[in-house]
Amino acid sequence: MRISRQRAGLRPALAAFMGLVLTGAVAAPAQAETAREQQWHLDLMRADEMWKTSTGKGVTIAVIDTGVDEGATNLRGQVLDGVDYSSEKGDEHTDWGEHGTVMAALIAGTGAGGERAGAYGLAPGSKILPIRMPKEGEGVTGLLVTPSYLKKWAKRMARAIRFAADSEAKVINISMASPGAENPELSAAVKYALDKGKLIFAGVGNSGDVKNELQYPAATPGVIGVAGVDRNAKPYKSSQWGPQVDLAAPAVDIVSTCPNDRQVCKASGTSNASALASASAALLWSQHPDWTNYQVLRVLLQTASGNDKGLSRDDVVGYGVVRPRIALTEPGDPGPADEYPLPDLGGKAAESASPEASEPAKGSAEPTAAAAAAGEGGGGGGVPTVGIAVGVGAAVLLGGAAAVWAVRRRRSDAAPTGVTPAPPYGGQPPYPPSTVPPPHQGYAHPSHDHGHDRRA
User: Is 344 one of the annotated active-site residues of the chain?
Assistant: First the structure.
């Protein structure tokens, strides 16, 4: 991800190896608008209205990333002491990749930077617990795509998740990714975090229009895999797809705090989507502090965009685009406190499951049970009519329970074969030049254009 024009081309050695989930062409924002006016995702999610009900106060979100700059204007007073697993200079409050700070600001930014740089997070009342991961190649010689290195990366991620699980954080955001395979240590760490009452969100990756190779930890059972959509709720062209996708959130042209703290920056990627889904969970948990992690997740699922025949999922946006405003105003029945609502860890299907919900065909390029975009008409204080968080099945309750568990999934089913693995964090440089996308390599992004719910 290139954060600004001035930073393009810096640190080529790092760019050759590092590939955070958040990538894409980035442009300096139009200076005629204030920072807040450029944050279209907050307008279409109607954040100003939501903040009258909840700002995420009382909820801490662990950000497993490249570190978080606690001195960033929009994050002053928002960043707690965490842990540093990197040998890079500084500590968890030093951002070696200029990525973790952006994610933290998308979640908990206060807008204190003024008109030009005062970007807000979706949950400005929440707090950030930074967990700084090692840079790729730290303590390793040779190639970064060997099975032994990928195993080491998974072990490092598992350690970070366990630290977060033992902390005060309720939500764990992971806007990082690595190829590979199921790893027992990583799987055990995820299960440990769930048992400790946490929710884990992770971006599914940004190579959906190229190889669509499974990325971890988003593909790890128990992790909520988050895909990306644009301001019209159309799938982000590079967002990965498959059975690992549980929810979707805004990902394209998202404006947030720049690492240089003097302006705002625009970027695209499922890193953004994961951060906004994590913030959505914080908003809901703040309003319902007595709910368990499973109840918070269940309400996020059953209020996500759906279709007019009942809640279901597809491989592009999962159960739909997250809609925190609907979750706050029309949560429905949160369901059992101790029952994990997704099928990847054996969650039980609701007795009232929609008969239309069915398993998408393996390898299909046209998933069916889709959600798409339409804005909320009327009012809105100038909010555009094309909305982000949409779909008809906002709270389709049959007997008080939402049908969101009927689709059985095995996350390993979607792993393509015959492709060369990329380095951890996706194999994509953090500051790519504006170039033509890589050649298509045979994994076409599925089409997705259904649904007509006009509620944001």
Answer: no
